[in-house]
Amino acid sequence: MNPQVILVYDGSFDGFLTCIFTIYEQKIINPIIKKESETNNQLFTISETIITDEAKSKRVWKGLKAKISSFQQQLFFKTFLSEIKGVENTLLSFVINIFSRQDSKHIDYSNKNILKISQVAKMVGREKHRMEAFVRFKQTKDEIYVATVEPDFNVLPLIISHFKDRYADQKWLIYDIKRSYGIYYNLLKVDIVTLDFFSKLNTSIKKDNYADQELDFQHLWRTYFENVNIKSRKNSKLHMQHLPRRYWKYLIEKNDI
After folding, report:
1. What is d(CA 145, CA 167) in angstroms, rounded to the nearest whole number?
2. What distances in angstroms separate CA 26 from CA 66, 73, 206, 256, one per listed residue?
3. Would 7 disulfide with which of 19, 91, 204, 245, CB 3.0-4.6 Å?
4. pLDDT band at residue 198 using 50, 70 and 90 as cut-offs
5. What's the CA dihedral at 154, 76, 89, 177 to 10 degrees?
6. Under a CB-based contact definition with an 8 Å cutoff, are residues 155 and 120 in contact?
7. β-strands 4-9, 32-35: how paired?
8. What's residue 4's pLDDT?
9. CA angle 163–167–168, rounded 5-degree value
10. 146 pLDDT higher than 80
11. pLDDT tens-digit profile of 162-191?
């Protein structure tokens, strides 16, 4: 019995695409792709560590783009960003199916992998929109607007365009505490950054680091929120439906100064 090959990669999208390139290059039969952070408890397997290669990654993505629509490309990327365990292998099955077909522009929702990709992508899309709606910036003394988040899925790559367009005239940083990286806009471009300042124990900006007027702005926002909130029309059930409690920690109006 031939042992199954497990391809271990760094968790990046380029790393994942490099795995797909390696599978086709080495003609690996029935491989399994896993992040290096995942443990391997399977017997009779051989593990191969895949080094991310941007050139190989680009070749795979170029090939996929030639076979699928832009909408399908978005579904593919969103599904990868879900970070759901084993999602790489669902996407691999999709790729194998796509490359083996002549006409791949049509979405066949009867295919279990395509159906799962569609469902997961919708979940990621909803989280993206919630982050765009619920992120609250706080101005620091160095005139950078900072927000910390802990989304269920890795949606920071998906919200870059929204915040870059909406806040083009100010420097801002959105930091994902859960994944220990952030996106920083310096008025010219957006960079991926990692900071030692933030951790799971230190998830927010201390008051001493706020700009002088920041607390006043927060107070004004809470006052506005309280005044426009009509108590007689309060519908707690509907409120929780549109604004789940897990997002309250981001909202100035839901927290004390």
Report:
1. 10
2. 22, 25, 52, 58
3. 19
4. confident
5. 0
6. no
7. parallel
8. 86
9. 105
10. yes
11. 999 999 999 999 999 999 999 999 999 999
CA distance 134 to 146: 13
Enumerate residues 6+ apart whose C-beta is below 8 A from 106: none
Give the tokens for residue 151.
């989304």
How does pLDDT run across 114-128, given as a tens digit for each residue?
A: 889 999 999 999 999
